[in-house]
Structures are given as C-alpha cells and as structure tokens.
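does this look right to u?? magnesium ion version
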Amino acid sequence: MTTAAAVHTSGSALPVVLEAVELHRVAMPLVRPFETSFGRQTARDVLLVRVLTDAGEGWGECVAMADPFYSSEYVEGCSAVIRDYLAPALLAAQTVRAPDVAGLLDFVVGHRMAKAALETAVLDAQLRAAGVSFGEYFGAVRPEVDCGVSVGIAPSIDALLEEVAGYRDEGYRRIKLKIKPGWDLEPVAAVRTLLGPDALLQVDANTAYTIADIDHLRELDAFGLLLIEQPFVEEDIAAHVRLARAIDTPVCLDESITSVGVAIDAIERDATAIVNIKAGRVGGYLEAIRIHDACLDRDVPVWCGGMLETGLGRAANVALAALPGFTLPGDTSASNRYFADDLTESFVLVDGRLAVPAGPGSGVTVRAELLAEWRSRPTQLITRV
Ligand SMILES: [Mg+2]
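got this back:
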C-alpha cells in the first residue's frame, strides 16, 4: 500500500465526464435504537448519491441524519440542495475531478455533508476507472484499523453494562459512552468498574452541557478517560478552552471542527488536544485528509468518527482511518453494530479490527436487491439542462 498523500497522487486518476446524478433514499432498520443527547433513532434514513460518468459509476453516502438535531443539515435538505444547486453545477462543469468539486460547489454556503457525498461519488468513479482504492489514494499505511464502538444512552445502568460487555466480548478495542446531564458520572463509573482500569474508555456529550457544568465535568477525571468529546455548543471554542484548562481529561472536538482552518484555530487556542475527524462534517474526504495532515504536523492525535454509515460510507471511513495520524481507535464499527444486513458487503470485526477494502474506489458494491427492498422514496435523476 502506498504511503503517498492523496494530494500527491491525484494526477493518477483521470477526470470523468459527468452525465447524470441519481439520488437514492433507503430506510435501514437498526438492530437496536441508538440514543444520544439529541434523541433516539430506530431506523437509519440514508441518502445515497450515484454519479453516472463516461468512465462508469461512482457512489457516495450522505451522512446527514433524518432531522436537523445533530447538525443543521438533514436528509431531506441535503436531497433538495443537491438536486437544485450542487448537482446542476457539477453537471454544468461536465468534466470533473474530485479535487475540483469543493471549488465548483463553493458558491453554496455550508451544506458540507451534501457536498461531501457528491465529492466522494466523483472520487469513487475516478478511482474505479483507474483501478486505485480509496486507501491507496488517501495514503493508507496499514491494511486494517483498530475499532471502537459508540454506545448510546441506555434505559438503565444494568442495560448499559450488558451492552458494553457484549461489545467487549466481540473484541472492540475502545468503548465510547454517550453522556448527557443526569447520565454521566454513574454510568461512567459502572463501566469503568466493569472494564477495569486499563480498558480504553471515552465519553461523548454531543454539546449537552454548558460552561456552568465545568466543576461537574471535572469529576470525570476520576475515571481515567481517553478524552471527553464536545461537551459544549459547537460555536463556542472559548468554553472548551476554559474546560481544557480546568480538567485533566483531554478535550476532543467533534461538531466544532468544520474545516482545516477551524481545526488549526482550535488546536492553537488549546481548545482541543485530540480531533475527531468526520469527512461528511468537513465537506469530504479531501478536507478530512487536510485536517489529518495539519494535526499530524502538530502532534495532535486524530480518530475517525462515525455517523451510522452503511457499508458504503464505512468503507471510505476505514480507508481514512488507515492514515498514519489516526492513532486512536475510531467509531468505525462492524456492520452488525447497527444493521442486521448491510447495504454492501458486511464489515466484520476480526480481533478488534476492520480490513481496509483493497478493491478500486470504495472497494465495496451497493447491493441492488437491498437498495430496492429498503427504498423509501422514488429515485431522483438529475441531468444536464
Ligand atoms: Mg461525537
């Protein structure tokens, strides 16, 4: 596997002529409800982008959730902005390369998750045609990645411990607990006792706290956590600086990190000692790699977050997590963590790791029969006008 960075190998994949964009919607049943401080999900409403080009097809998964609770983006909004603005702009450009997509779509403010899905689909088409995998193109340095698992807010401590014990027995190398006010010290203490002092354990608050909670959050220092993720609202970098000064547990930003510029600013202000990288949140895998590179330059560890992706998004995340700066296990869990059956080949945990797909592009194939079975809206076809 090559160690060259994507920006250096981008010339190896030829541009493609974009002929049409298709939007697919599926509802995938979750194996168990997933609850965070934002709410509870029982199915994953997924938007998939398929580009049709002169060199073949390419697929991208949009990570937006059904409702605008985790971020301002949501599935129906992403579908509309792609249909009305983003896809027509790319189709008008005709000949495209993934590194040009962000610039071509820059006239639309925000909507990073929607843009990321399109960029990924174009990259997938280019790399499938070139016979190059995402891992090779991104600059992966390992054939498999260490995996952690994100554990939602449970109905009781006993239910939480049973769920965590199950993941431990499956071999996950790190446990992450979702926390919120009223569900923090007690569950964290119970899980720490269950797992023992050496297990990798971290918490994610998904912006549920305020600066008035700093003294309370400091009590988490007793549990030897790897990090606390995003306790405060995403725009408030200053509040995270104050917490980082007050607490021994490293602070890690997720929702706040929307670009490489924001990441560098947060690091330089000591708001974050570790960065959670999610390609969808930052506008695509190419920006995600730029954030990885900036963090590597500054000795800031990174890890790959998760957005309940299907196998399609999971494949790209696993390739990203194989870059050298991803030194902490990611939320790149196996398919069966969320789904009884995956939309692509299933990702199976082996010794707490997932293999980086080696085939061209994402290296996985969308299963047409499941796409049809789980379809929740008619497919939309967008062509050049
Ligand atoms: Mg998070």
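The first strand starts at residue 16 and ends at 36. idk if thats expected tbh
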